[in-house]
Design goal:
alpha/beta; Rossmann fold; 2 domains; eight-stranded parallel sheet; two-stranded parallel ribbon; 10 strands
């Protein structure tokens, strides 16, 4: 039985990918880092959801290079979570991942596991270039470019969660400025489509899009309302980073935003409760 390794297992996208494969009875090795003591209650909540599975094993990022995995295994690296989350010392994290990839390559290119990189569609190679360079030449490696992904557990550094949390306009504007506003996908729609995406295209670079027109705009209008125009500091330019694959969006934007609002409220209540403890 193959094993799935998820780097970023307690982050946003990585958490849902981990949960998806565990729900199917697959073995998952979760790799993560502690990015902030302020978010410890979030990590603990996620641990309660996935840590109890007998098929789940956790390793901290500094133990990653000790793993011995086979050609049949699949490694998911969520650069999307590195970019959209709040993190200290990303260079150190990327260095650990590169060391792990190089270790896997020492057995020969034909013996390396499958690597799948989740990249934000608006991001140039930038700080992720060492990872992209390391996977060069690995035939099974794929890069999946993601538009804005939203839903429960979205990082507060992203515009929808910042708006729902009623952060200041400067924080929301900053989030929007660093986010792709040309499209959006609800997190479970993306995760449920993932296996089909990986098997339906032999291309190395794949960009996902929503089946709902103006998906980001529809969500933003629900969250920001009349203030939306004043928050937008740039016009949206459509980006093409690879073969375009449409994801069937089962979640209506209004329902997806409502679920994210409900989850945000629950987390805030949990945070207040912990302060009193």
């Amino acid at each position: 039985m193959q094993t799935y390794i998820v780097i970023g297992t307690y982050q946003f996208v990585g958490f849902y990918v981990t949960q998806h494969f565990l729900n199917q009875g697959e073995e998952v090795i979760g790799i993560d880092w502690t990015d902030s003591k302020a978010n410890q209650h979030i990590i603990e909540e996620k641990e309660l959801e996935i840590g109890r599975s007998a098929n789940f094993i956790y390793f901290p990022i500094n133990k990653l290079k000790l793993l011995d995995i086979s050609q049949e295994d699949t490694v998911f690296i969520s650069c999307y979570d590195f970019q959209q989350g709040k993190m200290d010392k990303p260079d150190s994290l990327i260095g650990e991942i590169v060391s792990f990839i190089e270790k896997c390559k020492k057995n020969g290119m034909n013996e390396t596991p499958n690597f799948v990189i989740f990249m934000p569609v608006e991001e140039d190679a930038g700080i992720f270039q060492p990872i992209l360079t390391a996977i060069r030449g690995i035939d099974s490696a794929k890069i999946i470019f993601l538009p804005t992904i939203y839903g429960p557990w979205q990082s507060e550094g992203m515009s929808f969660e910042a708006g729902i949390s009623q952060l200041g306009q400067s924080d929301i504007k900053k989030a929007i400025a660093h986010e792709y506003t040309g499209d959006a996908l609800f997190i479970t729609d993306f995760v449920h489509a993932l296996e089909g995406v990986l098997t339906s295209s032999s291309d190395k670079n794949i960009q996902l899009c929503s089946s709902i027109d103006d998906h980001w705009d529809k969500c933003a209008q629900l969250i920001f309302g009349e203030s939306m125009d004043s928050l937008m500091s740039k016009s949206t330019t459509k980006i093409n980073k690879g073969t375009i694959l449409e994801v069937h969006s089962k979640m209506d934007p209004a329902e997806g935003v409502a679920l994210q609002r409900k989850h945000n409220k629950r987390l805030n209540l949990l945070k207040e409760w912990r302060k009193r403890d």
